[in-house]
Design a protein that fits this description.
Blueprint: E1 6-9, E2 12-15, H1 16-28, H2 34-45
Antiparallel strand pairs: 1-2
Length: 46
């Protein structure tokens, strides 16, 4: 079993906490657009 703890995308480090938050947002709002989700992620990172 492989467990991912962090992910780097375009130089930005995403912790397991942010990845979990993204998963929770998608599970709670399955019809959320990529744009809306990206705005939320940016808010969480700041």
């Amino acid at each position: 079993m492989f467990i991912l703890f962090t992910m780097r995308i375009c130089g930005q480090e995403f912790s397991i906490g942010i990845l979990d938050r993204i998963g929770t947002a998608i599970a709670g709002m399955p019809d959320i657009s990529r744009r809306a989700l990206s705005w939320k992620v940016c808010e969480w990172l700041n």
